[in-house]
Amino acid sequence: MKKSSKKNFQTVRGMRDILPSDWPVVDFVFSKVQSLYRSYGFDRIETPIVEDVGLFQRAVGMETDIVTKEMYSWVDQGDERLALRPEGTAGVVRAYIEHGMLNLPQPVKLWYWGQMFRRERPQAGRYRQFWQFGCEVLGSDQPVADAELIIMMYRLFEELGLAIKVKVNSLGSEQCRASYRRALTNYFKSVVSKLNAEQKETLSHNPLRLLDSRDPNVIALKEGAPQIIDYLNEDCREHFLKVVDYLDDLDIPYQLDYTLVRGLDYYNQTVFEFVLVDEQGNESLALGGGGRYDKLVEELGGRPTPAVGYAMGVERIINIMRERKIDIPMPPVPDVFLAQLGDEARKKSLKLFEELRRIGVNVSQSFGKEGIKQQMEVANKRGVKFTLILGQKEIMDGTILIRDMENGIQEVIDFNKIVGEVQKRLSKVNGNGQ
Ligand code: HAM
């Protein structure tokens, strides 16, 4: 192939590389999330990225945007109809049923952190491959389970230094929703001339989704729409009141939002969302959301099992932490750098490097560089405390130089004693006996 005809490949639209400079903040959020789930008694689960397409059609809903427009699905060489997971709940519920977790003491509390795929229009905070972390509590119908999830996420955002707004609503039971749906349809039918073609379509298929619309026209119409809260039966109302009561008891600020319906079909009863607020208090992106899905386990072939969960968008959290310059701990810098000159020195250095690493010294090197000067530049850049220098003269004498990078003082040490010497010096500066 001629050089000029070579194609420069780039990331596929909506997909991103996660570069070395991105990882400290990803790792930081991961460690916070992991310890949060541990402290609330959750066990980790990871389900495959690829599942039977029918799982998502059944769980998320045949008429949702996620399934109709955004799912990556295909028929493979063995005629299996597969999909890249657009969300985590369906896979976790499948695993709960498949592995007989309903025989474990209930509730089963699971958390996950993984890549999801949705073919959405790429824009800030919206990617086609993105990470979610989230959790599912299977086997509890108690309002306290809903409240606990909201509380733990609120605490995480507090720890990360991000101001968020918690929005809560109840979608009631199937029966409550059916009568609300009728009332809402009647209302929107009375103003149907103000809806565009797509909105009319939504009205006929899933009128509740009109409440989600960002179109100013529909937002204005929503003002006069009936509210779900007036259609909840006694049990549903009581469940919801208990949830908000727990939040009140723990001083978790929240906002009741009767237009919050969420974009997945499996929800009933409590739904919630965590929305970012800017310095002026305006709402922006949803960082995450969730709710109850008491019928899903049964819908996917299991025993009736009430459940509740949520998921968060990792990129959205990370982007905002960056934008707001929230301090995160950087990975520890190495203590020691190993510089060498010549073949023999390189061989000996390789061995010494392994020896130091084995006893727990945070040591670094740049064996690919030839000159001592370039290697010293790397050592300086990495901010090490000591550099060990092994040149031809030292090889002949059976010695090695140790240079204190702070004061520049260099000393000759017997090569056989260098490991002990490094340990001694580090224990002095670090005060940890290393
Ligand atoms: P979801 O609201 O579809 O819920 O997604 C949760 C979060 O994932 C969103 O709030 C957002 O932060 C992030 N997210 C969604 N799509 C994208 C995207 N294209 N790019 C970047 N981030 C995105 C669920 O997925 C449910 N499974 C949550 C749940 C768990 N409900 C019960 N259990």
Could you explain how this protein is built, in words?
With 434 residues, the protein is of the alpha+beta class. It is 39% helix and 21% strand. The chain contains 15 helices and 16 strands. The strands form three sheets. An eight-stranded mixed beta sheet has the order 1-5-6-11-10-9-7-8, sandwiched between helices. A five-stranded mixed beta sheet has the order 13-12-14-15-16, with helices on both faces. It is elongated and about 95 Å long. Histidyl-adenosine monophosphate (HAM) binds next to strand 6, strand 10, strand 11 and helix 11.
Report a brief summary of the structure.
By secondary structure, the protein is an alpha+beta fold. The chain contains 15 helices and 16 strands. The model has no long low-confidence stretch (mean pLDDT about 95).
By DSSP, the count of extended strands is 16
Q: Outline, from the CA principal axes?
A: elongated
Total helices: the number is 15
Alpha-carbon distance between the two ends:
56 Å
Strand order of the largest sheet: 1-5-6-11-10-9-7-8
The computed structural class is alpha+beta
Instruction: Report the β-strand fraction as a percent range.
Output: 15-25%
Radius of gyration: 29 Å
Biggest pleated sheet: 8 strands, mixed
Portion in helices: 25-40%
Overall mean confidence score, pLDDT: 94
Stretches where pLDDT falls below 50 for ≥5 residues?
Answer: none
Bound molecules: histidyl-adenosine monophosphate
